[in-house]
Amino acid sequence: MQRHQSEVIIIGGGLAGIVCALQLLDAGRRVLLLDRDAPEHFGGLAKESFGGLLIVDTPLQRRQKLKDSPDLALQDWLAFGAFDAASAQPGHPFYWPRQWAEHYVGDSLQHLYHWLTARGVGFLPLPLWVERGMGPGASGAARGNSVPRWHVVWGTGQGLVGALLRQLERHPQRDHLTLKFGHRVEGLLTTGGAVTGCHGHTEGDAPEAFEAHAPQVVIAAGGINGGDLGLVRQHWHADWGQVPESLLNGSHQFADGTLHRAAQGVGGQVTHLQNQWNYAAGIAHWRPRKPRHGLSLVPPKSALWLNARGERITPALVSGFDTRDLVTQVCAQPSGYSWQLMNRRIALKELAISGAEFNPSIRDKGKLGFVRDLLLGNRWLLNEVLTHSTDVVTARTLNELADKMNALQGDSAVRADTLRGAVEHYDAEVAKGTASQDPQRLAIAQLRQWKGDRLRTCKAARIDDGSGLIAIREHIISRKSLGGIQTNLNSQVLASSGQPIAGLYAIGEAAGFGGGGMNGLRGLEGTFLGGCIYSAQRAALAIR
Protein backbone atom coordinates (compact mmCIF):
# COMPACT_ATOMS: atom_id res chain seq x y z
CA MET A 1 0.00 0.00 0.00
CA GLN A 2 1.15 3.52 -0.80
CA ARG A 3 1.32 5.91 2.16
CA HIS A 4 1.53 9.69 1.95
CA GLN A 5 1.88 12.37 4.61
CA SER A 6 1.35 16.12 4.36
CA GLU A 7 0.04 19.15 6.25
CA VAL A 8 -2.98 19.57 3.97
CA ILE A 9 -4.60 17.16 1.52
CA ILE A 10 -6.65 18.56 -1.36
CA ILE A 11 -8.84 15.99 -3.10
CA GLY A 12 -9.43 17.18 -6.65
CA GLY A 13 -7.42 19.08 -9.23
CA GLY A 14 -10.06 21.36 -10.69
CA LEU A 15 -10.15 25.15 -10.40
CA ALA A 16 -11.05 25.10 -6.69
CA GLY A 17 -8.25 22.69 -5.84
CA ILE A 18 -5.69 24.70 -7.81
CA VAL A 19 -6.67 28.00 -6.15
CA CYS A 20 -6.64 26.43 -2.69
CA ALA A 21 -3.19 24.96 -3.32
CA LEU A 22 -1.86 28.32 -4.51
CA GLN A 23 -3.13 30.11 -1.44
CA LEU A 24 -1.77 27.46 0.91
CA LEU A 25 1.64 27.62 -0.74
CA ASP A 26 1.54 31.38 -0.18
CA ALA A 27 1.15 30.58 3.52
CA GLY A 28 4.07 28.14 3.45
CA ARG A 29 1.98 25.01 3.99
CA ARG A 30 2.90 21.60 2.63
CA VAL A 31 0.17 20.35 0.31
CA LEU A 32 -0.63 16.96 -1.22
CA LEU A 33 -3.06 17.26 -4.13
CA LEU A 34 -4.74 14.02 -5.22
CA ASP A 35 -6.59 13.89 -8.53
CA ARG A 36 -8.32 10.95 -10.15
CA ASP A 37 -7.70 12.14 -13.70
CA ALA A 38 -4.57 12.18 -15.86
CA PRO A 39 -2.05 15.06 -15.68
CA GLU A 40 -3.14 16.48 -19.05
CA HIS A 41 -6.61 17.10 -17.60
CA PHE A 42 -5.32 19.09 -14.61
CA GLY A 43 -7.90 21.86 -14.22
CA GLY A 44 -11.00 19.73 -14.70
CA LEU A 45 -14.18 21.18 -16.18
CA ALA A 46 -13.01 24.75 -15.65
CA LYS A 47 -10.33 24.18 -18.28
CA GLU A 48 -13.03 23.23 -20.79
CA SER A 49 -15.37 26.10 -19.88
CA PHE A 50 -16.09 29.37 -21.67
CA GLY A 51 -14.61 31.18 -18.69
CA GLY A 52 -17.37 33.48 -17.42
CA LEU A 53 -17.44 34.88 -13.88
CA LEU A 54 -20.05 36.96 -12.11
CA ILE A 55 -18.24 39.98 -10.65
CA VAL A 56 -19.86 43.08 -9.17
CA ASP A 57 -18.98 46.75 -9.80
CA THR A 58 -15.81 46.25 -11.84
CA PRO A 59 -13.75 48.80 -13.79
CA LEU A 60 -15.09 47.17 -16.97
CA GLN A 61 -18.67 47.82 -15.87
CA ARG A 62 -17.90 51.39 -14.89
CA ARG A 63 -16.24 51.99 -18.25
CA GLN A 64 -19.58 51.08 -19.85
CA LYS A 65 -21.41 53.38 -17.40
CA LEU A 66 -23.12 50.39 -15.77
CA LYS A 67 -24.23 51.11 -12.23
CA ASP A 68 -23.78 48.00 -10.13
CA SER A 69 -23.34 47.38 -6.42
CA PRO A 70 -23.23 44.48 -3.96
CA ASP A 71 -26.69 45.48 -2.71
CA LEU A 72 -28.20 45.37 -6.20
CA ALA A 73 -26.45 42.11 -7.01
CA LEU A 74 -27.70 40.53 -3.80
CA GLN A 75 -31.28 41.58 -4.54
CA ASP A 76 -31.00 39.99 -7.98
CA TRP A 77 -29.36 36.87 -6.56
CA LEU A 78 -31.96 36.29 -3.84
CA ALA A 79 -34.85 36.85 -6.25
CA PHE A 80 -33.45 34.61 -8.99
CA GLY A 81 -32.44 31.91 -6.52
CA ALA A 82 -35.90 31.99 -4.86
CA PHE A 83 -34.57 32.72 -1.37
CA ASP A 84 -37.28 33.75 1.07
CA ALA A 85 -36.94 36.27 3.90
CA ALA A 86 -36.67 33.51 6.50
CA SER A 87 -33.45 32.26 4.89
CA ALA A 88 -31.63 35.01 6.79
CA GLN A 89 -32.33 33.17 10.06
CA PRO A 90 -29.94 30.53 11.47
CA GLY A 91 -31.36 27.03 11.15
CA HIS A 92 -33.15 27.73 7.88
CA PRO A 93 -32.24 25.21 5.13
CA PHE A 94 -30.89 28.05 3.01
CA TYR A 95 -29.18 30.00 5.79
CA TRP A 96 -25.65 29.02 4.82
CA PRO A 97 -26.27 29.40 1.08
CA ARG A 98 -27.57 32.91 1.74
CA GLN A 99 -24.57 33.76 3.89
CA TRP A 100 -22.31 32.71 1.04
CA ALA A 101 -24.33 34.75 -1.46
CA GLU A 102 -24.06 37.87 0.69
CA HIS A 103 -20.32 37.52 1.09
CA TYR A 104 -19.70 36.62 -2.56
CA VAL A 105 -21.29 39.78 -3.95
CA GLY A 106 -19.46 41.92 -1.41
CA ASP A 107 -16.07 40.32 -2.01
CA SER A 108 -16.12 39.52 -5.73
CA LEU A 109 -14.35 42.68 -6.89
CA GLN A 110 -11.35 42.10 -4.65
CA HIS A 111 -11.31 38.30 -4.44
CA LEU A 112 -12.10 37.60 -8.10
CA TYR A 113 -11.40 40.55 -10.39
CA HIS A 114 -8.35 42.04 -8.70
CA TRP A 115 -7.00 38.65 -7.56
CA LEU A 116 -7.16 37.26 -11.10
CA THR A 117 -5.87 40.31 -12.94
CA ALA A 118 -2.90 40.40 -10.56
CA ARG A 119 -2.12 36.87 -11.76
CA GLY A 120 -2.18 37.64 -15.45
CA VAL A 121 -5.83 36.88 -16.23
CA GLY A 122 -7.61 39.36 -18.52
CA PHE A 123 -11.24 39.78 -19.53
CA LEU A 124 -13.16 40.74 -22.64
CA PRO A 125 -13.84 44.48 -22.43
CA LEU A 126 -17.63 44.14 -22.56
CA PRO A 127 -19.43 42.27 -19.74
CA LEU A 128 -22.26 40.10 -21.07
CA TRP A 129 -25.86 40.22 -19.89
CA VAL A 130 -27.12 36.72 -19.12
CA GLU A 131 -29.94 35.38 -16.93
CA ARG A 132 -31.99 38.58 -16.95
CA GLY A 133 -35.16 36.96 -15.68
CA MET A 134 -37.90 36.14 -18.12
CA GLY A 135 -38.77 38.55 -20.90
CA PRO A 136 -42.10 39.77 -22.30
CA GLY A 137 -44.88 37.22 -22.45
CA ALA A 138 -42.82 34.35 -21.05
CA SER A 139 -42.72 32.32 -17.86
CA GLY A 140 -39.94 31.86 -15.32
CA ALA A 141 -38.30 34.14 -12.79
CA ALA A 142 -39.44 37.75 -12.87
CA ARG A 143 -36.01 39.08 -11.95
CA GLY A 144 -32.45 38.10 -12.75
CA ASN A 145 -29.36 40.15 -13.49
CA SER A 146 -30.36 43.82 -13.52
CA VAL A 147 -27.13 44.77 -15.32
CA PRO A 148 -24.46 42.93 -17.34
CA ARG A 149 -22.00 41.32 -14.91
CA TRP A 150 -20.81 38.16 -16.67
CA HIS A 151 -17.10 38.76 -17.22
CA VAL A 152 -15.56 36.41 -19.80
CA VAL A 153 -11.88 35.55 -19.51
CA TRP A 154 -9.82 36.45 -22.58
CA GLY A 155 -8.51 32.96 -23.22
CA THR A 156 -11.65 31.12 -21.97
CA GLY A 157 -11.46 28.68 -19.09
CA GLN A 158 -8.36 27.19 -20.66
CA GLY A 159 -6.57 30.52 -20.32
CA LEU A 160 -7.84 30.96 -16.77
CA VAL A 161 -6.59 27.57 -15.64
CA GLY A 162 -3.38 27.94 -17.63
CA ALA A 163 -2.51 31.21 -15.91
CA LEU A 164 -3.06 29.71 -12.46
CA LEU A 165 -1.10 26.55 -13.28
CA ARG A 166 1.82 28.70 -14.36
CA GLN A 167 1.59 30.47 -11.00
CA LEU A 168 1.59 27.09 -9.31
CA GLU A 169 4.61 25.75 -11.19
CA ARG A 170 6.63 28.93 -10.68
CA HIS A 171 5.69 29.36 -7.04
CA PRO A 172 8.64 30.00 -4.70
CA GLN A 173 7.27 27.21 -2.48
CA ARG A 174 6.68 24.76 -5.35
CA ASP A 175 8.70 22.10 -3.51
CA HIS A 176 6.00 22.16 -0.81
CA LEU A 177 3.45 20.80 -3.31
CA THR A 178 3.12 17.10 -4.20
CA LEU A 179 0.85 16.19 -7.11
CA LYS A 180 -0.54 12.67 -7.45
CA PHE A 181 -2.65 11.96 -10.52
CA GLY A 182 -4.59 8.78 -11.21
CA HIS A 183 -5.52 8.52 -7.52
CA ARG A 184 -9.18 7.73 -6.83
CA VAL A 185 -10.13 8.75 -3.29
CA GLU A 186 -12.91 6.51 -1.98
CA GLY A 187 -13.23 7.42 1.68
CA LEU A 188 -12.01 9.54 4.58
CA LEU A 189 -9.92 8.54 7.59
CA THR A 190 -10.78 9.73 11.08
CA THR A 191 -9.08 9.82 14.45
CA GLY A 192 -11.02 10.71 17.57
CA GLY A 193 -13.85 12.28 15.59
CA ALA A 194 -11.56 14.42 13.42
CA VAL A 195 -10.80 13.79 9.76
CA THR A 196 -7.12 12.98 9.40
CA GLY A 197 -6.74 11.66 5.89
CA CYS A 198 -8.24 9.67 3.05
CA HIS A 199 -7.87 6.35 1.27
CA GLY A 200 -8.49 4.87 -2.14
CA HIS A 201 -6.93 3.15 -5.13
CA THR A 202 -4.88 4.22 -8.09
CA GLU A 203 -6.46 4.11 -11.54
CA GLY A 204 -5.24 1.81 -14.28
CA ASP A 205 -4.93 -1.89 -15.05
CA ALA A 206 -3.14 -2.68 -11.78
CA PRO A 207 -4.81 -0.54 -9.11
CA GLU A 208 -2.89 -0.10 -5.88
CA ALA A 209 -4.36 0.87 -2.52
CA PHE A 210 -3.17 4.06 -0.87
CA GLU A 211 -3.64 6.09 2.28
CA ALA A 212 -2.85 9.76 2.77
CA HIS A 213 -2.63 11.44 6.17
CA ALA A 214 -2.89 15.13 7.12
CA PRO A 215 -4.59 17.14 9.87
CA GLN A 216 -6.55 19.12 7.25
CA VAL A 217 -8.43 17.58 4.31
CA VAL A 218 -10.13 19.64 1.60
CA ILE A 219 -12.73 18.06 -0.70
CA ALA A 220 -12.55 19.70 -4.13
CA ALA A 221 -13.75 16.77 -6.23
CA GLY A 222 -16.62 18.39 -8.12
CA GLY A 223 -20.35 17.75 -8.09
CA ILE A 224 -22.82 14.98 -8.88
CA ASN A 225 -23.92 15.89 -12.40
CA GLY A 226 -21.54 13.62 -14.31
CA GLY A 227 -20.37 10.03 -14.05
CA ASP A 228 -23.05 7.67 -15.33
CA LEU A 229 -25.72 10.35 -14.66
CA GLY A 230 -27.22 8.11 -11.98
CA LEU A 231 -27.27 10.86 -9.34
CA VAL A 232 -28.64 13.37 -11.83
CA ARG A 233 -31.57 11.04 -12.40
CA GLN A 234 -31.93 10.20 -8.70
CA HIS A 235 -32.13 13.87 -7.68
CA TRP A 236 -34.07 15.13 -10.72
CA HIS A 237 -36.16 18.12 -9.66
CA ALA A 238 -39.91 17.54 -9.41
CA ASP A 239 -40.53 20.60 -11.60
CA TRP A 240 -39.06 18.72 -14.55
CA GLY A 241 -41.21 15.59 -14.45
CA GLN A 242 -39.68 12.50 -16.04
CA VAL A 243 -35.96 12.38 -16.79
CA PRO A 244 -35.57 12.49 -20.59
CA GLU A 245 -34.22 9.28 -22.10
CA SER A 246 -31.89 11.33 -24.30
CA LEU A 247 -30.20 13.14 -21.37
CA LEU A 248 -26.60 14.07 -22.24
CA ASN A 249 -23.56 14.46 -20.00
CA GLY A 250 -22.08 17.96 -19.95
CA SER A 251 -20.26 17.50 -16.66
CA HIS A 252 -17.11 15.60 -15.69
CA GLN A 253 -16.80 11.85 -16.16
CA PHE A 254 -15.73 11.56 -12.50
CA ALA A 255 -18.37 13.92 -11.04
CA ASP A 256 -20.19 10.99 -9.48
CA GLY A 257 -20.69 12.01 -5.84
CA THR A 258 -18.10 9.65 -4.36
CA LEU A 259 -16.75 12.33 -2.02
CA HIS A 260 -20.25 13.50 -1.12
CA ARG A 261 -20.88 9.99 0.20
CA ALA A 262 -17.51 10.02 1.94
CA ALA A 263 -18.40 13.27 3.69
CA GLN A 264 -21.73 11.82 4.75
CA GLY A 265 -19.89 8.78 6.06
CA VAL A 266 -18.11 10.94 8.65
CA GLY A 267 -21.25 12.90 9.56
CA GLY A 268 -21.21 15.71 6.99
CA GLN A 269 -24.44 17.17 5.67
CA VAL A 270 -25.22 17.17 1.94
CA THR A 271 -28.01 19.52 0.91
CA HIS A 272 -30.14 20.70 -2.03
CA LEU A 273 -28.98 18.11 -4.58
CA GLN A 274 -32.33 18.49 -6.35
CA ASN A 275 -31.18 21.93 -7.50
CA GLN A 276 -29.23 21.40 -10.70
CA TRP A 277 -28.08 23.82 -13.39
CA ASN A 278 -28.75 21.88 -16.56
CA TYR A 279 -29.19 23.22 -20.08
CA ALA A 280 -31.93 22.77 -22.66
CA ALA A 281 -29.92 22.81 -25.89
CA GLY A 282 -27.50 19.90 -25.85
CA ILE A 283 -26.25 18.01 -28.87
CA ALA A 284 -24.13 14.87 -28.96
CA HIS A 285 -20.38 15.49 -29.17
CA TRP A 286 -19.00 14.06 -32.42
CA ARG A 287 -15.65 13.37 -30.73
CA PRO A 288 -16.88 12.00 -27.39
CA ARG A 289 -14.47 11.61 -24.49
CA LYS A 290 -16.98 9.97 -22.14
CA PRO A 291 -20.32 8.12 -22.38
CA ARG A 292 -23.22 10.32 -23.53
CA HIS A 293 -20.83 13.25 -23.98
CA GLY A 294 -22.80 16.34 -24.93
CA LEU A 295 -22.10 19.89 -26.07
CA SER A 296 -24.17 22.79 -24.78
CA LEU A 297 -25.31 25.15 -27.51
CA VAL A 298 -25.93 28.82 -26.89
CA PRO A 299 -29.42 28.65 -28.42
CA PRO A 300 -29.92 31.13 -31.29
CA LYS A 301 -32.44 33.71 -30.12
CA SER A 302 -33.96 34.25 -33.56
CA ALA A 303 -34.63 30.54 -34.10
CA LEU A 304 -38.06 29.00 -33.57
CA TRP A 305 -38.08 26.56 -30.66
CA LEU A 306 -40.26 23.57 -31.50
CA ASN A 307 -41.36 20.42 -29.70
CA ALA A 308 -40.93 16.87 -30.99
CA ARG A 309 -43.98 17.30 -33.25
CA GLY A 310 -42.60 20.45 -34.84
CA GLU A 311 -45.05 22.71 -33.02
CA ARG A 312 -43.80 26.05 -31.73
CA ILE A 313 -43.44 25.91 -27.95
CA THR A 314 -45.44 28.59 -26.16
CA PRO A 315 -44.73 30.79 -24.35
CA ALA A 316 -41.94 31.36 -26.85
CA LEU A 317 -38.56 30.17 -25.60
CA VAL A 318 -35.67 32.63 -25.89
CA SER A 319 -32.28 32.16 -24.26
CA GLY A 320 -30.67 34.84 -22.13
CA PHE A 321 -33.44 35.20 -19.58
CA ASP A 322 -33.92 32.05 -17.47
CA THR A 323 -31.99 28.90 -18.35
CA ARG A 324 -33.81 26.81 -15.76
CA ASP A 325 -37.17 27.74 -17.23
CA LEU A 326 -36.02 26.61 -20.67
CA VAL A 327 -35.27 23.19 -19.17
CA THR A 328 -38.64 23.15 -17.41
CA GLN A 329 -40.56 24.00 -20.58
CA VAL A 330 -38.71 21.49 -22.77
CA CYS A 331 -39.16 18.71 -20.21
CA ALA A 332 -42.91 19.39 -20.28
CA GLN A 333 -43.02 18.68 -24.02
CA PRO A 334 -43.65 15.25 -25.56
CA SER A 335 -40.55 13.06 -25.64
CA GLY A 336 -38.42 15.48 -23.56
CA TYR A 337 -36.37 16.86 -26.46
CA SER A 338 -36.86 19.77 -28.83
CA TRP A 339 -35.89 21.27 -32.17
CA GLN A 340 -34.64 24.71 -33.08
CA LEU A 341 -35.51 25.84 -36.59
CA MET A 342 -33.46 28.59 -38.21
CA ASN A 343 -31.77 29.54 -41.45
CA ARG A 344 -28.13 29.87 -42.42
CA ARG A 345 -28.12 33.63 -41.81
CA ILE A 346 -29.32 33.21 -38.23
CA ALA A 347 -26.93 30.34 -37.56
CA LEU A 348 -23.93 32.31 -38.82
CA LYS A 349 -24.61 35.22 -36.50
CA GLU A 350 -26.11 33.55 -33.44
CA LEU A 351 -25.12 29.89 -33.19
CA ALA A 352 -22.45 29.19 -30.59
CA ILE A 353 -21.25 26.28 -28.48
CA SER A 354 -20.33 26.95 -24.89
CA GLY A 355 -16.80 26.16 -23.80
CA ALA A 356 -13.18 26.54 -24.83
CA GLU A 357 -13.11 23.82 -27.49
CA PHE A 358 -15.38 25.57 -29.99
CA ASN A 359 -14.35 29.17 -29.33
CA PRO A 360 -10.78 29.16 -30.69
CA SER A 361 -10.60 32.91 -31.35
CA ILE A 362 -11.23 33.71 -27.69
CA ARG A 363 -9.37 30.66 -26.38
CA ASP A 364 -6.25 31.41 -28.42
CA LYS A 365 -6.59 35.19 -27.99
CA GLY A 366 -6.94 35.82 -31.71
CA LYS A 367 -8.22 39.38 -31.91
CA LEU A 368 -8.63 39.45 -35.69
CA GLY A 369 -10.55 36.18 -35.72
CA PHE A 370 -12.72 37.31 -32.84
CA VAL A 371 -13.69 40.55 -34.62
CA ARG A 372 -14.20 38.69 -37.91
CA ASP A 373 -16.59 36.21 -36.30
CA LEU A 374 -18.56 39.03 -34.65
CA LEU A 375 -18.94 41.00 -37.86
CA LEU A 376 -19.21 38.27 -40.50
CA GLY A 377 -20.45 35.26 -38.54
CA ASN A 378 -18.60 32.19 -37.34
CA ARG A 379 -18.28 30.21 -40.56
CA TRP A 380 -15.79 27.74 -39.10
CA LEU A 381 -18.16 26.77 -36.27
CA LEU A 382 -21.20 26.48 -38.52
CA ASN A 383 -19.24 24.26 -40.90
CA GLU A 384 -18.09 22.07 -37.98
CA VAL A 385 -21.68 21.63 -36.78
CA LEU A 386 -23.18 21.01 -40.22
CA THR A 387 -20.42 18.58 -41.18
CA HIS A 388 -20.11 16.53 -38.02
CA SER A 389 -23.20 16.79 -35.80
CA THR A 390 -25.63 13.89 -35.88
CA ASP A 391 -28.34 16.17 -34.46
CA VAL A 392 -28.54 18.58 -37.41
CA VAL A 393 -30.41 18.45 -40.72
CA THR A 394 -30.49 20.99 -43.55
CA ALA A 395 -32.90 21.52 -46.43
CA ARG A 396 -34.04 24.02 -49.06
CA THR A 397 -37.76 23.60 -48.36
CA LEU A 398 -39.94 22.94 -45.33
CA ASN A 399 -41.26 19.73 -46.90
CA GLU A 400 -37.72 18.42 -47.29
CA LEU A 401 -36.81 19.57 -43.79
CA ALA A 402 -39.75 17.74 -42.19
CA ASP A 403 -38.79 14.53 -44.00
CA LYS A 404 -35.19 14.81 -42.79
CA MET A 405 -36.23 15.59 -39.21
CA ASN A 406 -38.39 12.47 -39.16
CA ALA A 407 -35.65 10.36 -40.73
CA LEU A 408 -33.19 11.54 -38.09
CA GLN A 409 -35.53 10.73 -35.22
CA GLY A 410 -36.82 7.53 -36.81
CA ASP A 411 -40.50 8.43 -36.65
CA SER A 412 -43.10 10.54 -38.45
CA ALA A 413 -43.86 13.02 -35.67
CA VAL A 414 -43.15 16.19 -37.65
CA ARG A 415 -45.60 17.31 -40.34
CA ALA A 416 -44.52 19.78 -42.99
CA ASP A 417 -47.74 21.78 -42.68
CA THR A 418 -47.10 22.16 -38.93
CA LEU A 419 -43.66 23.61 -39.64
CA ARG A 420 -45.09 25.81 -42.37
CA GLY A 421 -47.76 27.22 -40.07
CA ALA A 422 -45.23 28.10 -37.38
CA VAL A 423 -42.79 29.66 -39.86
CA GLU A 424 -45.39 31.66 -41.77
CA HIS A 425 -46.89 33.02 -38.56
CA TYR A 426 -43.51 34.07 -37.20
CA ASP A 427 -42.26 35.54 -40.47
CA ALA A 428 -45.44 37.62 -40.65
CA GLU A 429 -44.67 38.95 -37.18
CA VAL A 430 -41.14 39.84 -38.26
CA ALA A 431 -42.61 41.78 -41.20
CA LYS A 432 -44.62 43.94 -38.77
CA GLY A 433 -41.41 45.39 -37.37
CA THR A 434 -41.84 47.26 -34.09
CA ALA A 435 -45.62 46.77 -34.24
CA SER A 436 -45.25 43.05 -33.53
CA GLN A 437 -46.45 41.83 -30.15
CA ASP A 438 -45.03 38.35 -30.60
CA PRO A 439 -43.25 37.51 -27.30
CA GLN A 440 -40.12 36.32 -29.10
CA ARG A 441 -39.91 39.53 -31.14
CA LEU A 442 -40.36 41.60 -27.96
CA ALA A 443 -37.67 39.59 -26.17
CA ILE A 444 -35.22 40.07 -29.03
CA ALA A 445 -35.88 43.81 -29.04
CA GLN A 446 -35.20 43.88 -25.31
CA LEU A 447 -31.98 41.89 -25.68
CA ARG A 448 -30.67 44.12 -28.46
CA GLN A 449 -30.80 47.19 -26.25
CA TRP A 450 -27.46 46.03 -24.78
CA LYS A 451 -24.58 46.38 -27.23
CA GLY A 452 -23.12 43.00 -26.24
CA ASP A 453 -26.30 41.25 -27.42
CA ARG A 454 -26.85 43.57 -30.37
CA LEU A 455 -23.60 42.34 -31.90
CA ARG A 456 -24.70 38.70 -31.70
CA THR A 457 -28.47 38.89 -32.33
CA CYS A 458 -30.24 39.47 -35.64
CA LYS A 459 -32.51 42.50 -35.71
CA ALA A 460 -35.31 41.12 -37.87
CA ALA A 461 -34.58 37.70 -39.30
CA ARG A 462 -37.30 35.77 -41.12
CA ILE A 463 -36.94 32.00 -41.00
CA ASP A 464 -37.81 31.15 -44.61
CA ASP A 465 -35.54 33.68 -46.32
CA GLY A 466 -34.02 31.47 -49.00
CA SER A 467 -30.59 31.13 -47.35
CA GLY A 468 -31.16 27.49 -46.43
CA LEU A 469 -33.09 25.90 -43.56
CA ILE A 470 -31.46 24.25 -40.56
CA ALA A 471 -33.09 22.17 -37.81
CA ILE A 472 -31.14 21.16 -34.72
CA ARG A 473 -32.43 18.39 -32.45
CA GLU A 474 -31.64 19.46 -28.89
CA HIS A 475 -31.51 17.39 -25.71
CA ILE A 476 -31.36 18.29 -22.04
CA ILE A 477 -27.72 18.25 -20.95
CA SER A 478 -26.47 17.97 -17.38
CA ARG A 479 -23.98 20.56 -16.21
CA LYS A 480 -23.61 21.86 -12.63
CA SER A 481 -24.97 20.63 -9.32
CA LEU A 482 -26.14 23.63 -7.33
CA GLY A 483 -26.39 21.66 -4.08
CA GLY A 484 -23.56 19.95 -2.27
CA ILE A 485 -21.70 19.43 0.98
CA GLN A 486 -22.86 21.97 3.56
CA THR A 487 -20.16 24.38 4.75
CA ASN A 488 -19.81 27.47 6.88
CA LEU A 489 -18.00 30.62 5.72
CA ASN A 490 -14.65 29.00 6.51
CA SER A 491 -15.54 26.18 4.07
CA GLN A 492 -15.64 23.76 7.02
CA VAL A 493 -17.99 20.83 6.52
CA LEU A 494 -20.92 20.92 8.92
CA ALA A 495 -22.48 18.05 10.84
CA SER A 496 -26.21 17.74 11.52
CA SER A 497 -25.63 19.61 14.78
CA GLY A 498 -24.48 22.63 12.79
CA GLN A 499 -20.97 22.30 14.17
CA PRO A 500 -17.93 21.91 11.90
CA ILE A 501 -16.29 18.51 11.54
CA ALA A 502 -12.70 18.91 12.68
CA GLY A 503 -10.17 18.74 9.87
CA LEU A 504 -12.65 18.63 6.97
CA TYR A 505 -13.33 21.30 4.35
CA ALA A 506 -15.24 21.35 1.06
CA ILE A 507 -14.91 23.83 -1.79
CA GLY A 508 -16.10 24.46 -5.32
CA GLU A 509 -18.91 22.44 -6.84
CA ALA A 510 -18.48 19.76 -4.16
CA ALA A 511 -19.83 22.36 -1.70
CA GLY A 512 -22.52 23.66 -4.04
CA PHE A 513 -20.01 26.46 -4.71
CA GLY A 514 -20.30 27.41 -1.04
CA GLY A 515 -22.63 26.55 1.83
CA GLY A 516 -24.08 23.48 0.14
CA GLY A 517 -25.97 25.52 -2.45
CA MET A 518 -25.22 29.25 -2.48
CA ASN A 519 -27.08 29.89 -5.75
CA GLY A 520 -30.42 28.66 -4.49
CA LEU A 521 -32.83 27.43 -7.14
CA ARG A 522 -31.12 29.23 -10.03
CA GLY A 523 -27.70 30.66 -10.80
CA LEU A 524 -27.06 34.10 -12.26
CA GLU A 525 -24.23 32.48 -14.30
CA GLY A 526 -20.58 33.03 -13.55
CA THR A 527 -21.13 32.11 -9.92
CA PHE A 528 -19.79 28.64 -10.69
CA LEU A 529 -16.20 29.44 -11.62
CA GLY A 530 -16.46 32.38 -9.25
CA GLY A 531 -17.71 30.14 -6.46
CA CYS A 532 -14.84 27.71 -7.02
CA ILE A 533 -12.28 30.47 -6.62
CA TYR A 534 -13.99 32.21 -3.72
CA SER A 535 -14.72 29.11 -1.63
CA ALA A 536 -11.14 27.90 -2.17
CA GLN A 537 -9.76 31.22 -0.97
CA ARG A 538 -11.90 31.13 2.17
CA ALA A 539 -10.84 27.56 2.95
CA ALA A 540 -7.15 28.39 2.54
CA LEU A 541 -7.51 31.47 4.73
CA ALA A 542 -9.12 29.38 7.48
CA ILE A 543 -6.48 26.64 7.24
CA ARG A 544 -3.54 29.06 7.40
How would you describe this structure in keywords?
FAD/NAD(P)-binding domain; 544 residues; Flavocytochrome C3, Chain A, domain 1; FAD/NAD-bd_sf; 18 helices; eight-stranded mixed sheet; 2 domains; alpha/beta; KsdD_DH; transmembrane helix
| Distance between the ends | 30 Å
CATH architecture assignment name of the largest domain = 3-Layer(bba) Sandwich
Helix content: 25-40%
User: What is the class of the largest domain in the CATH system?
Assistant: Alpha Beta
Content-based structural category: alpha/beta
Number of helical regions:
18
Low-confidence stretches: none
- Overall, the morphology is globular
> What integer is the average pLDDT?
98
Largest sheet: 8 strands, mixed
Rg calc: 23 Å
In terms of DSSP E residues, the strand content is 15-25%
Determine the CATH topology of the largest domain.
FAD/NAD(P)-binding domain
Count of discrete structural domains: 2
Number of strands: 22
